[in-house]
Write a structure and sequence with these properties.
Oligomer: single chain
Helix content: 25-40%
Shape: globular
Number of domains: 1
Order of helices and strands: EHHEEHHEE
Strand content: 25-35%
Radius of gyration: 14 Å
Structural class: alpha+beta
């Protein structure tokens, strides 16, 4: 499922959809909260830095194990130094600087690809 992210209302809708998918995968309330929180942070980054982007929501399975993969992508300015951007407290937008690092800690699997001038792609998976 693809969802456009371009407004604060889109983030509200995205949070609801991610929660619905997490419930469908059998996530506990704690795991639902973790993946929704991570999704919120990443969607907010899209709005703040790229202006618009998209989220792909994909239920995943590995044998009997169920999970949810979220892939956020944008065509924004990109991240020049991913390692620095992942450090807690680092921000170029005036926030607390916990978005990327915090999202990584809330995920079971996390990857980020970015090219300056081309955009950013962040993938996170949370396993039940």
């Amino acid at each position: 499922m693809l969802l456009a992210i371009g407004t604060s209302e889109d983030i509200v809708r995205m949070r609801q959809l991610v929660r619905e998918h997490a419930i469908a995968q059998g996530f506990s309330l704690v795991d639902q909260t973790k993946i929704v929180t991570a999704a919120s942070e990443l969607a907010r980054n899209i709005l703040n830095y790229a202006g618009k982007g998209q989220l792909e929501i994909e239920p995943v399975a590995n044998g009997a194990r169920k999970g949810l993969r979220l892939v956020f992508s944008d065509k924004g300015p990109g991240i020049a130094d991913i390692e620095l951007a992942m450090k807690d407290g680092y921000t170029t937008g005036g926030g607390m600087g916990l978005g990327l690092g915090g999202s990584r800690r809330l995920a079971s699997e996390f990857s980020i690809e970015s090219r300056v001038g081309e955009g950013t792609r962040v993938s996170l998976t949370r396993w039940k």
